[in-house]
Amino acid sequence: MSIDQFIDNEVKTNDVVLFMKGTPQFPMCGFSGQVVQILDYLGVPYKGLNVLENDELRQGIKTYSNWPTIPQLYVKGEFVGGCDIIREMFQAGELQSLFKDKGVPVKTPAAAS
Question: Is 0.85 topped by the overall pTM?
Answer without folding.
Answer: yes
